[in-house]
Design brief:
277 residues
């Protein structure tokens, strides 16, 4: 018998240890336009509903998506049809950076929690020394009445927020710092890489931070955007490594794709099994 997925506490919410992400659903493949188009073509609104229902059956009760017209429509439809997932929303790219008031507008769609995009808002504000802008966005989320998240690829941003006691309920922590990896590649080889670079040392650096901060973390890019899925043993190893380094009250965020099998059921059972061990 497969053990049940554990729950973690984020704000006042009881959230499954595994959260389903939206990258495969809406074509954010992190590989190329062909794969992204394939994702979009397959994921009709009805299939997104099927995936969310399957997630609930498997014990997953939270979904994170980036705020677009399509994702908002799907989320509201699912909730209207009686779905019980907690909706965690992420700003669309750098939209809130360009227009902070959009965070207040987006909160009216009804998500349970919101966070500014890690690369497009959080890391950018940190890199450009615009922390007051980032804190203003976070305050707008708080004032709108939803839980407040801070997403980051750069572990230094999470450390800064923690050290300064920022008013957030959770961190979203990417295990791979893609912009830093591009810079390191260019410095070493004298030209930009063709595609995204995932460096293991970045994974360990972020997990060190995750293990030390007081707030719960939603850990994402656990499978390196599909680069670490060659076998079930490999997936098990990646999940196990992250879970061992995380706090008990942290969660994994993983995008899942149902066309060629039941990734949702398999991943939920695997995380439950690893947590039981």
């Amino acid at each position: 018998m497969t053990p049940d997925l554990p729950r973690v506490q984020i704000g006042g919410l009881s959230v499954s240890k595994l959260i389903i992400g939206d990258n495969p659903m809406y074509g954010y493949s992190h590989f190329n336009k062909l794969l992204s188009s394939h994702y979009v073509e397959w994921h009709t609104p009805d299939r997104v509903m099927e995936a969310l229902r399957r997630a609930e059956e498997a014990g997953i009760n939270a979904w994170q998506n980036s705020l677009t017209e399509r994702s908002v429509s799907d989320a509201q439809r699912y909730l209207k049809e009686g779905g019980g997932v907690h909706w965690f929303a992420l700003s669309w790219s750098d939209e809130w950076y360009r227009n902070p008031s959009k965070a207040t507008e987006d909160a009216r769609h009804g998500p349970a929690a919101m966070a500014p995009h890690g690369g497009g808002v959080g890391d950018r504000c940190f890199r450009e020394g615009k922390l007051d802008l980032l804190k203003d966005i976070l305050k707008r989320i708080r004032d709108a009445g939803t839980l407040v998240g801070l997403s980051a690829h750069d572990p230094r941003l999470v450390e800064t927020a923690e050290e300064r006691g920022w008013d957030v309920d959770y961190y979203m922590t990417a295990l791979y710092h893609l912009s830093a990896a591009r810079r390191e590649f260019a410095q070493k080889f004298g030209h930009d890489p063709m595609g995204e670079i995932y460096l293991r040392e970045h994974r360990d650096r972020m997990l060190d931070v995750v293990s030390r901060v007081s707030k719960p973390c939603i850990v994402y890019k656990v499978l390196a955007a599909g680069r670490a899925i060659q076998s079930r043993d490999r997936i098990r190893s990646e999940f196990a490594y992250a879970l061992k380094r995380m706090k008990l009250n942290d969660a994994l965020l993983v995008g899942m794709y149902q066309k060629y099998g039941d990734q949702i059921g398999e991943n939920a059972a695997l995380v439950a099994e690893l947590c039981a061990e």
